[in-house]
Amino acid sequence: MDRRKEDRLAVDLLGVLNRTGKAPVCVDVSQVSANGCRLTGRNLDLHPGEQIELAFGGLVGMQAEVQWAHGDMAGVRLAASLHPAIMRYFASFIRLAG
């Protein structure tokens, strides 16, 4: 059962994850919705409830909370929704994820 409430865009973007007291980590950002995305990266060591700062696709300093984490992947919920114009911009370059 898919619990997603929003369409996801199948992007493939490079991002940077920042956490208090830890070095920045390069991540791949995918499955972007207005309120969250999936992160993939080596040795993420993220935990549900953890607060992070995320930058990708020209957007910087976005606050997010880890919703789930499994190995080198995690799902995050953005503290502030992406503006519809930003979603349209991403959608103009990629396909809608199924």
Features:
98 residues; mainly beta; Thrombin, subunit H; six-stranded antiparallel beta barrel; 1 helix
For the residues shown, what is the average pLDDT?
A: 88
CATH class, please? Mainly Beta
The number of helices is: 1
Biggest sheet character? 6 strands, antiparallel, barrel
Low-pLDDT segments, ≥5 res: none
The ordered H/E elements are EEEEEEH
Major β-sheet strand ordering: 1-2-3-6-5-4
Assigned CATH architecture: Beta Barrel
| Count of discrete domains | 1
Query: How much of the sequence is in beta strands?
Result: over 45%
- CATH fold-type name: Thrombin, subunit H
Structural class: mainly beta
In helices, the fraction of residues equals: under 10%
Q: Which word captures the global form?
A: globular
Q: Could you give the distance between the termini?
A: 13 Å
Q: Roughly how many Å is the radius of gyration?
A: 13 Å
Q: What is the H level of CATH, i.e. the homologous superfamily?
A: predicted glycosyltransferase like domains
Task: Describe the overall structure.
There is one protein chain. This protein has 98 residues and is mainly β. It has one domain (13-91): predicted glycosyltransferase like domains (Thrombin, subunit H, Beta Barrel). The chain contains one helix and six strands. The chain has one helix at 84-91, and strands at residues 13-19, 22-33, 36-40, 51-56, 59-70, 73-78. A six-stranded antiparallel beta barrel has the order 1-2-3-6-5-4. Strand 1 and strand 2 (22-33) form a beta hairpin. The longest helix has 8 residues, at 84-91. The radius of gyration is 13 Å and the shape is globular. The two termini are 13 Å apart. The model has no long low-confidence stretch (mean pLDDT 88).
